[in-house]
Amino acid sequence: MAGRPWWGANELLAFLLEVAALACLFWWGFSLADEVVFQLLVGTAVLAAAIALWALFAAPRARFRPPLAGVLVVKAVVLCGGALALYGVGHPAAAAVLGAVVVVNTALAETFRHRPAAAA
User: Where are the domains of the chain?
Assistant: First the structure.
C-alpha cells in the first residue's frame, strides 16, 4: 500500500459499502413482514443469501473464482441490491447516492487493480 494511498482509501470505502449494502438488505427484508419473529427471519434470510453469494463468488478468498465479468455481476447484485433495498424502505435520495458511490468505487477499484504500483 506504500505509494498508493488512494488505493488503500478506496479499498476501505469498498469494505464500508459492502457492510452498508448488507445492512440495507437486512433492513429491507425486515420490513417485508408484520410480526417481529417473521421480520427477523426474513431479514436474516435475505442477509444470509447475500453473504453466501458474496463469499462464494466475490470475496478475495472466494470458494469459486469466476471470470472478472462474473465477479462484477455478483458485486452488482449485492451492492446495487443494497441501494435498491434502501429505495424499497423509502429512502430514494440515499439509495441514489449509495448506488452512485458504489459505481464510482468499483470503477476506481478495477482501475487501481490493473495499474502497476508507483516506483519506490
Answer: 5-114
pTM: 0.87
Residue with cell 425486515: 30
CA distance 47 to 42: 8
Angstrom distance (rounded) from CA 78 to CA 3: 31
The cell numbers describing 56, all together, are: 462464494
pLDDT, tens digit (0-9, with 9 covering 90-100), for 94-119: 999 999 999 999 988 888 776 655 54
Q: Which of 17, 85, 11 is nearest to 47 (CA)?
A: 85
Q: Which of 86, 89, 110 is nearest to 99 (CA)?
A: 86
Q: Are 46 and 29 in contact (CB under 8 A)?
A: yes
Q: Which cell numbers in the block locate residue 14? A: 469498498
- pLDDT at residue 1 is higher than 70: no
Buried b (16+ CB within 10 A) or exposed e, 54-93: beebbeeeeeeeeeeeebeebbebbbbbbbbbbbbeebee
Asked if 14 and 105 touch (Cβ cutoff 8 Å), the reply is: yes
